[in-house]
Amino acid sequence: MAAFEFQLEAQDGKARAARMTTPHGIVQTPLFMPVGTVGAVKAIMPEQLAASGVKILLANAYHLLLRPGIERVRRLGGLRRFMNWKGAILTDSGGFQIMSLSKMVKIDEDGASFRSHIDGTLHRLTPEKCAEIQCALGSDIQMQLDECVAWPARENRAEEAMARSLRWAARARDAFINSPQRREGQALFGIAQGGVYPSLRRASAEALCEMGFDGYAIGGLAVGEGQEMMLQTLAETLPHLPENAPRYLMGVGTPSDLLEAVRLGVDMFDCVLPAREARHGHVYLGAARVNLRNAAFAEDAAPLDAKSDCPASSGYSRAYLHHLLKIGEPLAATLLTWHNMDNFQKLMRRARQAIMEGRYESYCQRLLSGETLL
Amino acid sequence: MAAFEFQLEAQDGKARAARMTTPHGIVQTPLFMPVGTVGAVKAIMPEQLAASGVKILLANAYHLLLRPGIERVRRLGGLRRFMNWKGAILTDSGGFQIMSLSKMVKIDEDGASFRSHIDGTLHRLTPEKCAEIQCALGSDIQMQLDECVAWPARENRAEEAMARSLRWAARARDAFINSPQRREGQALFGIAQGGVYPSLRRASAEALCEMGFDGYAIGGLAVGEGQEMMLQTLAETLPHLPENAPRYLMGVGTPSDLLEAVRLGVDMFDCVLPAREARHGHVYLGAARVNLRNAAFAEDAAPLDAKSDCPASSGYSRAYLHHLLKIGEPLAATLLTWHNMDNFQKLMRRARQAIMEGRYESYCQRLLSGETLL
């Protein structure tokens, strides 16, 4: 099996097009990963995601630890087999979920203890345990355990968590390298923290680079600071990350967030947004968001996108989708999730094409000005 | 466009194999129609039904009248286009829904007035209006408006409703024949009523035959009388229906119901059962029902049916489906609905094959004895 590889293919301003080689396929960037939190992307079949060009999914070690349990997934052949997913998988370590979901969190230098948000059972994660868990799941790309702080955080609190995340990064790296369950080609990404403080972000990025990871994530953003401050923090962090490794902005975001962050040099994204919005009746046409529950669509015979090769986008009228939403029909979630996922994949594929052809700026402008036709 | 045609192809005892020609395709019997109540089969895409061999769906004129309204469906190109369904459609007239769902029902000789179970709005259906509505929807097979009585019904009440249903049958027939919206090849079925009273059933069947319909339904069964009484009533009704026309047992049922009724000479069925059971975690393996929520499946690495060509049946382990049900993941409904629908289609296709080959009795016995392998 090939080693994990990242190869830059084109650059347009700071925007990058690259390819990553994982144990389960080559993936092209910029890319957006649908989120299969508990081992499933809500309301959509993996075959449908694959048909829309998805090559890599995200799943959460935290959620799988609680249900159905890591050992069970391992016994059932690993996460890819469990989910019936033929592509690659990135797993998140749980740092963010511990902060945002669980109860009675106690963080010490060794790791984090917390109670399940489902049934109150007590759990403990350390950087080593997290690496072991993700190896057991069979992740193609795993994330270090990090300490996330809630927004807003004062500088000394952000520094404390950033510094601890760095110490955990080093331990995760050792555990990953020495794991007997690790397979050739699997990758570990470090996570840069530091809130919205440029000097902390720089220190975090530089220290991670010195340790050396297969890729670098920017964590702790899109937690309430707003797009402007997020992009500013990104712009101050990215120059301190190596050119020849993937850069992954975690938990982001809207099409506008994606387009702007790609412009700054980000390669990878994940977010529950397109699926969650779909379940609420919101669809994306290009970068524009439309509420299909609006009465204006009750008689609209046009499909979401007549020219799309996605069956959910081209096969059903807006009036029909509006009707399904009004009656609470579960098929609506499937069709709108598929459409949104397909749209996000197209946004990234066409961003890549634009970067390769040196016209990313105009592509970005067209979409941000509301042009729906990709 | 071809006229509606029904052609018997084989008989094995009383069990029949036939083909019907509709304006939107040839369908083979015995057949089971998935129910797309409000213009969608819950949680499953029409492409997935078609992949499982479904050629004809049922939809409810009553539900579509309430939401989104018949005129809207007509303006949007008719029900098939509205639903993105390429096959044939049978619509139910609403007689059963008026009795079972709506409020403040007033039935007089001319028709039925009732209040919507959704928003309390007042509606009125007559046999003529019902025929007109179903023509507007573009149904390939439409049903007469009938009067259904709740179980149990005394004989005089059953007789009254049966006699009125016959008078309404005659009016539906006239309205259908004279409808300017009717298209070549569209069919109208009469509905035999009469509760569990053999003499009423016989009178109803004979009177309908005399009027002449494209097909004959048996209504008012599977409403609480139990399988034994249902089959007994069927056995007393079917001999009075013509050989050379389809016989449709409405709202039935379990695999066992289907197998037994086919044995008595029924050609067509519809029921919400396989979809509803799927949403509750119950799957059919052959004629046997299994509760996937049972803890026994938590570590079962086998798919529902490894040899199936249905992706939902063969692509996912029982342990995974169990997990999806436990976490309340909407994908579970899609996968289990597809599996159940596929299983019902296979039950009927293989029943047909068995009839053609003169071995229906042994096929039936094997399945009823719990053999899961079709």
What is the overall pLDDT average of chain A? 96
* Percentage of residues in DSSP E strands of chain A: 15-25%
Using CB atoms under 8 Å apart, which protein chain pair has the greatest interface?
A-B, 37 and 37 residues
The quaternary structure here is: homodimer
The total of helices of chain A stands at 15
Count of distinct structural domains of chain A:
2
Please identify which CATH superfamily of the largest domain in chain A we are dealing with.
Queuine tRNA-ribosyltransferase-like
Q: What is the name of the CATH architecture of the largest domain in chain A?
A: Alpha-Beta Barrel
Give the low-pLDDT segments of chain A.
none
Separation, N- and C-terminal Cα atoms of chain A: 36 Å
CATH classification, class level of the largest domain in chain A:
Alpha Beta
What does this structure look like?
The structure is a homodimer of 374-residue chains. With 374 residues, the first copy, chain A, is α/β, with parallel strands linked by helices. Chain A has 15 helices and 16 strands. Chain A has helices spanning 46-51, 61-66, 70-75, 79-83, 95-100, 127-137, 155-178, 198-211, 227-237, 255-264, 273-279, 311-314, 318-327, 331-356, 360-368, and strands at 5-12, 15-22, 25-29, 31-33, 56-60, 88-92, 103-107, 112-115, 122-125, 141-143, 187-192, 215-218, 247-249, 268-270, 282-285, 288-291. An 8-stranded parallel sheet of chain A has the order 4-14-13-12-11-10-6-5. In chain A, strands 1-2-3 form a 3-stranded antiparallel sheet. In chain A, strands 7-8-9 form a 3-stranded antiparallel sheet. In chain A, helix 6 packs across helix 7 (155-178) and helix 14 (331-356) runs antiparallel to helix 15. The longest helix of chain A is centred in the C-terminal third of the chain and has 26 residues, at 331-356. The model of chain A has no long low-confidence stretch (mean pLDDT 96). At the A-B interface, helix 13 and helix 14 of A face helix 13 and helix 14 of B.
